[in-house]
Amino acid sequence: MKKYETIKSTRKFNEIINIGNKVKSKYFILCSVVNNDIDFPMFGVAVGKKTGNAVERNKIKRRIRHLVNNKKKLFKNNRFYIIIGKKECKNVNFSLLEKDFEKLLLKGEINEK
Question: CA torsion 59→61→64→66, rounded to 10°?
């Protein structure tokens, strides 16, 4: 993710999570909102404190950012995305996370049509 593609505002995070279309999988929650002001997707990554200490949360966020960078072609333009990592993704093999993430994105496309 590039700097201009990230969502950092707490107000924007809360707005997207409250209003957005939510799709859940075993390891992630994906919230998305359409925004016609931009020509590219914007991303935010969140992991709750119940997941573990700061080291574990940062590891999960790094993994999610890596998944987003590898799967950018699957995201639609003109949207805000918030990806929330669940507690279950803490001790899982990266290949399983990748498969689950792809399924989540495909499921999100189906729910938006």
Answer: -70
What's the Cα-to-Cα distance from 35 to each of 16, 38, 108, rounded to whole Å? 11, 7, 16
The CA-atom distances, in angstroms, between 17 and each of 14, 84, 101 are: 5, 10, 18
Residue 5 φ then ψ, to 5°: -95, 0
Q: How many whole angstroms from its chain centre is CA 24?
A: 11
pLDDT digits (tens, 9 = 90+) for 47-57: 999 998 999 99
110 sits in which H/E element: helix 94-112
State the Cα–Cα distance between residues 6 and 74, nearest whole angstrom.
Answer: 17
Indicate yes or no: pTM above 0.70.
Answer: yes
**Are 37 and 1 in contact, with CB atoms under 8 Å apart?**
no
Instruction: Cite the beta strand spans of the chain per DSSP E.
Output: 21-24, 28-34, 42-47, 79-85
Instruction: Dig out the tokens for 8 from the structure.
Output: 């950092």
